[in-house]
Design goal:
binds 5'-O-(N-(L-cysteinyl)-sulfamoyl)adenosine, Rossmann fold, 14 helices, BirA Bifunctional Protein, domain 2, about 35% helix, 2 domains
Amino acid sequence: MRLSRYFLPVLKENPAEAQIVSHRYMLRAGMIKQQAAGIYSWLPLGYRVLKRIEQIVHEEQVRAGHIPLLMPTLQPADLWRESGRYDDYGQEMLRIKDRHERDMLYGPTNEEMITDIFRSHVGSYKDLPMTLYHIQWKFRDEVRPRFGVMRGREFLMKDGYNFDVDRESALHAYNRHMVSYLRTYERMGLTAIPMRAASGPIGGDNTHEFLVLASTGESEVFYDDRVTALKLGARDIDYDNWDQVAKVCEEFTTLYARTDETHDEAVFNGVPEEHRKVGRGIEVGQIFYFGTKYSEAMGATVVTKDGSKVPVEMGSHGIGVSRLLGAIIEASHDDKGIIWPEGVTPFHVGIVNLKQGDAEADAACEALYKSVAALGLEALYDDRDERAGGKFATMDLIGLPWRITVGPRGLKNGVVELTSRRTGESVELPPEQAIERIAQIYAGI
Ligand code: 5CA
């Protein structure tokens, strides 16, 4: 993409309404525009990152054997009357009437609708286990929408629902989600710690939240700090291997890590003092096992091997896709702007032309731009007729992890400069070598 032809409405001043750094940088980098409290347009740069995050979420869900579909944002109230949640859900639910005076709602979550789909088409243990998921907009009329996409009213969620014939199989589905989530967050450069939580309006007795530690987080967290060193890494997971998956979950949930909802001071005091930490965290996902809560109320049954009919065992599992942008920025920024992890960056590399209009510099930039594309990667080429300082400030603000700087002086010596946004370190290299380095960096991502 050439910046001269792009739409990147960068702001010079700090917007007064933004209280936390991720919100401030998302507005300043021209990623989002607020349209109403907690409701945002996704401008081109923000939309790119949102799509990259969605892509990672999809890939890891499919890897775990889960099946994508798409349910609507608007739902008939009658489904929610069946489960009893239409009245329970309260003012967070946006209720709408259509022209025929039928009660509708903008979905805050989809347990009822997916249960309806299941009961219409599935009736035998032979079709199980099955996990269906979608990535779809939700609406919750939060009392206090704030911090930009962090607590929106309209927000993008991945929500997945497992259907299993018995409790053991459903608990494996729970564990499988936990492991797939760990991998998902790691690919985004995040450490998200599974913490025992409370289930709220979704229900059930087994639930974990995934928290990214950040001083601006909305949840208070209590943890053994050795938990922050745990990494899934590149280990090979066989999602059909119940024992292997359960062992990984055990590894990640044995050390003390809880939110204030489930915190137990007596147990916490058992953690060696030097490892006992209290802090704040951003909830980027939550998984629930709730058994037959919805299937019983809505008549979603399956015939088991021995011929009996039982309500199907279920759980639901959510990732806050749009919230993740905020969480990643909270975890990865400096005083100049965002620092995107390679896994989610909107462009893989920025190209800065220090002397636009200089025949040699222009030609070198064009060649680099084409070489990046030939790698299957995307460059943002700042080809505007602007001063170098302004170009650098924009690149630093929008946070591309790698920048290639091209100027007549370097070109005389046959080199360009490759700079890491994270460390600030620069190396001078011939253009072909800079491209090679870029290829290597992204090879494993
Ligand atoms: N049905 C279940 C799981 S599919 C569910 O709705 N779970 S949830 O309520 O925990 O939401 C899942 C995730 O969505 C949360 O962990 C959080 O990351 C994100 N989320 C929830 N509310 C908001 C909000 N108002 N703004 C942005 N993200 C949100």
